[in-house]
UniProtKB/TrEMBL annotation:
The lineage of its organism: Eukaryota, Metazoa, Chordata, Craniata, Vertebrata. It comes from Trichechus manatus latirostris. This is Sodium/bile acid cotransporter. Does not show transport activity towards bile acids or steroid sulfates. GO terms for biological process: sodium ion transport. Keywords: Cell membrane, Endoplasmic reticulum, Golgi apparatus, Ion transport, Membrane, Sodium, Sodium transport, Symport, Transmembrane, Transmembrane helix, Transport. The chain crosses the membrane at residues 41-58, 70-91, 103-124, 136-157, 169-188, 200-218, 233-256, 268-291, 297-319. GO terms for cellular component: endoplasmic reticulum membrane; Golgi membrane; plasma membrane. The gene is SLC10A7. Belongs to the bile acid:sodium symporter (BASS) (TC 2.A.28) family. PANTHER family: SODIUM_BILE ACID COTRANSPORTER 7, SOLUTE CARRIER FAMILY 10 MEMBER 7.
Length: 340
């Protein structure tokens, strides 16, 4: 992971802490009906900016080279958008009998429903030297799939359609997610050379807007006197998130390294990161739409806010280990090939 990218992510983590602290200090500024008018500026404008920005930055023209590796793509997308949320749901049936805050458990389910991130899985795959083209394809393709599948999964597992009309959710998703994304891709076609030359700070723009969404979400929470988050639940959720992350990384490693899997060591690296990483950039705006006006929205968002830094931290720590495994496996494959 490059120095600038690492610094940006560290500042973003600091920004999340600062945003939550600021919301706690003076929640009236960013609450619904407050001076920032988040019901308009966040719900419509901020979300649209994030997805227009994603449309501009997604290099879909680079995906054709990875398109034909269908088995790899199917594995990653099915694991991410089917196996992951279903396994979390089963796990939560056990956790539901514990004293852990129920809204945090619902938040864990939302993590399982999220699509892969646009950047972190690609950056870590590249850092290891894995199949970067496959990582780019699955991050981008998963993001597009997530626009439709993630809201459906949220409604299936959490039943949020009882408080927000199904048609209203999808019409807002279409106008604030799909349309800006398509417009971003169209604009990119005309200014692609300029974008490649100037390299605008897409990550910084999305991160700044995302911090505003996080800030206003927690302003709503802290302005509600009925919400209380106990420290026990929070500590247990952090432990569970790290355990889930490690378990699923190990599981994808085992599945993709079987003798009959047909995956190369470089493919396995892309699978490990793309299958287990979840998007905060796409996730928070979607939660804001699907759970619009929900008094416990910020509690539902907490596990995703924890999962995001957890996946980057664990991924960065494991880069040297995974890289040494991949190099040794590739050397072993070369030695096994008969000399011509």
């Amino acid at each position: 992971m490059g120095l600038l990218e690492r610094m940006r992510k560290e500042w973003f983590m600091f920004g999340i802490v600062l945003a939550i602290a600021g919301a706690k200090l003076e929640p009236s500024v960013g609450m619904n009906g407050g001076p920032l008018k988040p019901e308009i500026t966040v719900t419509y404008i901020a979300v649209a900016i994030i997805f227009f920005n994603s449309g501009l930055s997604l290099k879909t023209e680079e995906l054709t080279s990875a398109l034909m590796h269908i088995k790899l793509h199917l594995f990653i997308q099915i694991f991410t958008l089917a196996f992951f949320p279903a396994t979390i749901w089963l796990f939560l049936q056990l956790l539901s009998i514990t004293p852990i805050n129920g809204w945090l458990l619902k938040g864990l389910q939302t993590v399982g429903c999220m699509p892969p991130p646009v950047s972190s899985a690609v950056i870590l795959t590249k850092a290891v030297g894995g199949n970067e083209a496959a990582a780019i394809f699955n991050s981008a393709f998963g993001s597009f799939l997530g626009i439709v599948i993630t809201p459906l999964l949220l409604l299936l597992f959490l039943g949020s359609s009882s408080s927000v009309p199904f048609t209203s959710i999808f019409s807002q998703l279409f106008m604030t997610v799909v349309v800006p994304l398509i417009i971003g891709q169209i604009v990119r076609r005309y200014i692609k050379d300029w974008l490649e030359r100037k390299k605008p700070p897409f990550g910084a723009v999305s991160s700044s807007v995302l911090l505003m969404i996080i800030y206003t979400t927690f302003c709503d929470t802290f302005s509600n006197p009925n919400i209380d988050l106990d420290k026990f639940s929070l500590i247990v959720i952090v432990f569970i998130i790290f355990s889930i992350q490690l378990s699923f990384m190990l599981l994808t490693f085992i599945f993709s390294t079987r003798s009959n899997s047909g995956f190369t060591p470089a493919d396995t690296v892309a699978i490990i990161f793309c299958s287990t990483h979840k998007s905060l950039t796409l996730g928070i705006p979607m939660l804001k739409i699907v759970f619009a006006g929900h008094e416990h929205l910020s509690l539902i968002s907490v596990p995703l806010l924890i999962y995001h830094p957890a996946q980057i931290l664990l991924g960065s720590v494991l880069v040297p280990t995974i890289k040494s495994w991949m190099v040794s496996r590739q050397k072993g494959v070369k030695l096994m090939r008969p000399a011509v």
